[in-house]
Structure formats: C-alpha cells, structure tokens
Amino acid sequence: MALDIRDREAAATIARLEARLAEQAMALAHSAKIFERASALARIGVWECSLPDETLTWTGGVYDLFDIPRGTPIDRAQTLKSYSEESRLILDALRSQAIAERSGFQFDAEIITATGRRRWMRLTATVECEGDVPVRIFGMKQDITDEKILGDRMRYLAEFDVMTGLPNRSVFQTRLAAFDAGGGGTLLLVDLDGFKQINDTFGHALGDDCLKDASARLRTVCAEADLVARIGGDEFAVVLSASVDARACETLAETIVAALKWPVERGGRRLVLGASVGIARADACSASELFTRADTALYAAKAAGRNTFRTFVAPAQPAASGGSWQSDRDGLRRGTGPQTFHRIEPAPRLGSE
Description:
Strand content: 15-25%
Distance between the termini: 112 Å
CATH class of the largest domain: Alpha Beta
Order of helices and strands: HEEHHHEEEHHEHHEEHEEEHEEHE
CATH superfamily of the largest domain: Reverse transcriptase/Diguanylate cyclase domain
C-alpha cells in the first residue's frame, strides 16, 4: 500500500516535471520563433566561427543575407570571396587585431551575394576565450543596404546640385575656406551671358536644359581642375591648383568662353549663350578676399561687353604705371589677338544676367 502511494507520488512528480518541461519547450520555441521573425524584419543573422579550425555556423538570416540556401554547408574561405576587396582587407585587419587583443569590432562591409546582388552589411564580432585562449568569434550580420543607399542619397543631396550633377555651393565654400590655410591656387568665377533672357522667353524647362548643357561643357573643358561647382542660378566656380600658372589659367578661361558660346539645340530652337569669366590668384589673401577679387574681375568682364574674361592682378604685382589691374585677353571674341590691359577700379557687382 505504501509502495503504491509512493509510486503514485513519483508518477505525479514526473508528470508535473514533464508538463513543466513541455511548457518551457513551448516557451523556448515561441521565443525562437519571435527571434526568427524579429531577425527577419531587422534583416539580422547570428554567426559563429570556431577557432582555430575556422568552422562557420550561421542562422537563417545570414544565409538570406548572402543569398545562399539555408542549411548549405559553408566554408569561410569561399565566403570571403563575397566581400569586396576593400572590405575583405579591412575585415582581415580588424579580425586579426580583435583575436590578438581578445576584443571585438564592428564595421560596414560591401558584399556581392551568390546571386550577384550588391549589398552592404553591418558586421559585429566578439572574441570568446577559455582561459586566455581565443576559442571562437561570434556576432551578428545585418543587411543595411537600404540605410546605406539612403545615407549616400542624403550626402549627395547635401553636396551636389541635383540638376547639373556638379558639386554645390556648400562644397565650394568648404574648398574656398581651404585657401585660408595657404598653399595657393586660382579661382575662376563663370557667369552665363544671356541665360536670363532665354529663361524668361522660353521657360524654365529650356533654361534648365541650357544649364545642364553648360555644366557638361564646363566639366569637360575643366577636367583637370580641383573643383567645378555650381554656386548660384547661372554662376559656376572653378578652382585650380597652385601648379597651374597664370598663363594656363587665362588659356582655360579662353577655352571656357569658347566652349559656352556654342548654341544649344533644343526642340528645334537654337539657343545662344555666352560666358563671362573672372580670374583671381590666391596671392597672400584670405579666402573671402580671393572670392571678392574673382567677383570684381567677373564684373569687369561683363562691363567690357561679356563673352570675355578678366584677371584681377593684386596691387602687390602692379603693372608699369602701378595700381590694381585686370587683364583682358578676348581675342576669340574680338579677334584682337595680343594681350591688352585696361586699368579699372574694383567695384561691387551689380548683378548677373
């Protein structure tokens, strides 16, 4: 009788334990299911690499990230071929350092998946040790392709003019400020002649086409420039390095005037533009003064009849009779050939056309 009671009690205890184990198993399965769904939504997978045999273990999310069927045997050497060369070099360096220091790392890597798709992933890693011996490295890999594309897009919008594809005024201002640190160089300001009339007469669509065309021509003829930027409605800036001498700068200005005076053919219309160019060299002046000098030279070019250029010569390098000079080499426009000089007083710009 006593034995039967004990048997029943033991059986009840076992049943309770089995029920509890079943509940725990269900909870664990539910947690795994939630984790798997959350990982899928976040596009995250967990990975582990055993050391030193380099055996890899992936969860489904990592397989999906690499476009490899889940459960496929994976080899680390083969997997590394999915990384871009730059990302692979960074990964090798960070991984070696983390193992040596018993630490971890995180970085964003570019991969080409098994199906040929380009993706970006954020890789985190931690080295686990037994005693002081590294035995495994593990972490997470997350698909951040959309985040990367959005970030690149935001940076592009912050730094480039959407219409023309040229760097914008913000980038130009940063480059201009660098002149305060010295080093020399030359600034050319380019203003389109006749653009306002085209824009007012034929509408913004054709005006935009003219801006795109002019930008493409500038980019072509100024291919060796440090920077070609759109800094206003119809105004552009070209920055040349200190290695470009004064003669070469004026030759480039001449080329710009010639390139931009060719008509733009659109919708059966022949739209004629032109360009005035102001040149100033960074000779012992601040960035703001450099811009003012180039702007003064640009105003002088427009005052001289447009479709030409002027170079601001600082008082420190006066012409024979002294003072501040602008040089005019518009042989392409007037066919005069030799270089001529006209003394004019610097004046603020009255606007542009």
